[in-house]
Fold this protein.
Amino acid sequence: MQIYLPIAEVSVNAFLLLGLGGLVGILSGMFGVGGGFLMTPLLFFIGIPPPVAVATEAVQIVASSFSGVLAHLRRKTVDLRMGTVLLIGGLTGAAVGVVLFNYLKSLGQVDLLVKLCYVVFLGIIGGLMFVESWRAIRRAKQVNAPPVRRKHGLVHALPLKMKFRVSGLYISVIPPLLVGLLVGILAAIMGVGGGFIMVPAMIYLLGMPTKVVIGTSLFQIIFVTAFTTMLHATTNYTVDIVLAVLLLVGGVIGAQIGTRIGVKMKAEQLRILLAIMVLLVCGKLALDLLLVPSELYSLGAGGGH
Amino acid sequence: MLRLIAALFLMVSPLAAEEIVLGLSRDEVAITATFNGSDVMIFGAVKRDAPAPNGGPLEVIITLSGPLEPVLVRRKERVLGIWANTDAVEVDEAPSFYAVATSAPMRDVLTSVEDLRYGISIPRVIRSVGAPSDVENAETFTEALIRIRAAAGLYQVLDSQVDMEEETLFRGQITLPAALTEGNYSAHIFLTRDGVVVDDYETDIAVFKAGLERWLYEMSRNQPFWYGIMSLMIAISAGWLASAAFRIFQR
């Protein structure tokens, strides 16, 4: 069934969008990522204009994250206190990121920068996570392996300590604030919720348990993407609500299914799957930059000088 | 020789006037939620005050053009091993949609001089005043624009696809694609003899969003803040609904 999208001004198959939404929703619920880094390229591929794809994707992320967070709240796997601290940093970072984005846009190479950002960050994060979770799985198989003790690093030496009971942490608020800020900046530049950076950062930099990380990440993604949605809607008029509804119907259902799958899996398995997915997207984007494109020319709206 | 005939013909043509009487299957196209492209039938007859003059057969060219707008064409080049946009050329005016249908192969129907004068074939419709002097092969940008839009079904060349009967009745059909932009589309019909335009006629077809599409579009432009809030409310309530539904389902 074809549906004409009022803002994107293209006609698309409704069932295809429902399916895509569902697929990305499942991943979102499983891994605590918004799924923007997957969905945005998919939308480009089916012919949605990039500005509309990026803006509308934010609406879908709000929906599927909210759906996922409700499921996690019932399981008490959301650290609201940690989420709030991350969010304060995240919103500040997003505001800085938007300013930075507009500056880069005026220089004219923002597309390339966004893609390079994707390749570099996805590559680093995916690679590190893959190696770490691979080792964890190997260790789990050796019965008599000594348990790994957490080191008391910088995270514990800083002032302004706070108790995060759900995560079982007693650490300074400075590292989570910084993590939130950095992710916020990157999220605004790359046009995503930032879950795929936030999740590994919480696991490896803050030392939070994987089970809590997912719910907490979803919690803060809701607010960051809601903020992004409003920015896009009021400045670029690129939020296509019909497209959003089609995507989010699939997305919210997928998120519920994904959450249930995620709970049944081991933390290392979850992490290695996320790592593989991140590396696949990274590889695809890197190939796009390196291989000879089939069409060297591209069209954009004129009159903008 | 051809020019001489053409010149002679121009002098003669006001006397042996051949005029277009036109009909359209529709003079407006409403884009609704289920819009999936649309066919526009353009038909008409040739009115004559005198018997048809001697010379080549009478031919018809039908063009349908979307609104003209500037387009920025970018070219990728390899920089340090990475494909990046380097040069860009702004094409001053290009139609968002353009179809040209003829009753015989284009080269038999229209001389290039007349094409230049009336702006009928696709390359003649696109106006590019000049590329920046530091860009090499600037004309390839216009070619790329035509190639990309033709691949998307937005630029159509329908050679020999207008039916012409008894040099009097003609009929052509143009299919508008599903991905259509709003605006006033102009249908332009040319009668030619020996490659020279004898008469032309222009009429508008309004293409506009209707119903819910119209309402949402207007709201996104006029009340962007509330449009954003509305989007978020829909997102939140859908998220809650799915979560609640799954809870009931699991009990």
Summary: The mean pLDDT of chain A is 79. Chain A touches chain B through 61 residues (CB under 8 Å). The first helix of chain A runs from residue 14 to 31. Chain A has one domain: 6-290.
